[in-house]
# Entry
Amino acid sequence: MTATSPSEVPATPDIDPQLLKGTTAMLILAVIDDGELYGYEIAQRLRERSDGAFEPSEGSLYPALHRLELEGALSATWRASDRGPRRRYYRLTDAGRGLLADSRDRWGAFVRVVDRVAAPG
Amino acid sequence: MIEPTAVDRYLDAVSVRLRMPDALRDEVLEELAAHLTDATADEVAIGVPLEIAEQRAVERLGPADPLADRLRRTHATKRRLLAAVGNGLMPAARDTVGGLFVGMVIAVVAAAALAALTRVAFGLLDRPAPTWGEGRAVFTSVYALVAFLAVSWGTATFVRTVAARSVRDPAAVWAPIGLAAAAVTATIAWTARLPHDGISVALYGVLPLAALASAYATAHPSAWRPLRRVAPRREWIARLALVMLVGVLSAMLVAAVGQALAPRFMASLTPPTDAYVSASADPDVTAVATERRERARVPVISDGWGYAGEPVVVLFQLGEAHWSRYQDLQVEAWRAVGPDLGHGGTGALDPDLSAPLLIEPVADPRTDHIVLALDRYRDVGTYALFLVGTERSTGDRVIIGEPAVSESTYYGTLIHWLLVAR
# Structure
């Protein structure tokens, strides 16, 4: 776990939260693709990998994690911790890996189209 | 007293809004607690005081209410609800059978006690005790008790199981409502083949009411607040007693309403049958019931039970010989008393009456049916119908034909004993 305090993360360019809608699941899956993680670690990884650009309410992470688990994209395991309560570790399932691949493809296509349209003259 | 921390208050706030099964809620809260623990520790590690660190950790997690609502909605999936319904069916079926068993045991004990009491009571009155054959009401009541226990027990288990496995989503309400609707539908479908007396009608009301009362009481524990003074160990007995009390009182209400509405309601459910001319020694008076169903206007059931919610149509055939031999033909409806008239029963004409309730002339020789407005006499349970005419040669007023049954207490030609509901 990182020792960097989230409140110490340097200022980053603002990202419109509306743009993040629809990508949360893909971002979570992409982070967990690195390996088994629990909720707080996932929030930290999101922050680190975006250089602090993603600052959504950390609470919004858990409904998304639970939804992905209910949909079968993630599986979860409880593990004891020496720092208080047990941690709930999430890992990708095969379905989750497939979903991540699809999401990346669609996102790539979306970005290309947006770039084409938004590129100057 | 230890003052709750910001983390404690936050988790309490989430818990209050996190309406879902206890086990699931505990897991969600533990996961959030772990998150807050880590977030607080990270803040403290860089020198932030504990109290402020906890406050920051809570703020980063976001407001408690929206988070709890989103988590609740996330787990309120239809699939989860369906799974809960499916999981609830088996224990519900098991407890329904348990209710049947317990109900039968209670019924046997109650029936034995009732029989003993009845024997003693009638012995004191120096009158013969009623036989089981006359105990239809007792039998039906036992049936109602057993059915009530089975349905209410099974329903309570079903709702409890469903509620324990799914969040208290408004959609969950549809499960007991659907069950009750199915019970009502089955009852209506079943009713056409079941007795239509008042007690039975009450029973038909008991079943869906028992299901609804049990479902409501199980899904809304706060409804039991008055019972909190009861020791927890005995609380389930108090709950069952209260449900039964509500069920029985409701059944009585339904019975009262049913008594008023049942004739017309049941008439609409029961396939029409004929009032028919019974077999007679006179070959010209012929039973035509089977051939003339299309003419029947009301259900008149000859073998025990039925309702006359509309005027009764009496069908008959008279040979040409009758029209040359008799004149002033008419059908008379008499009040009768006693059960199972016309079926070897002990019934007879009401001795207190000297005149028919109703006389309907048969004016047209081609007429093969007449309409009797017996619906005016809803207090009369049993009628006897006679075809009467004046013999042209002698001018005597006679009953046409011979009695259709052998009991000497009957007089005249029996067209038919109509058994209709009181």
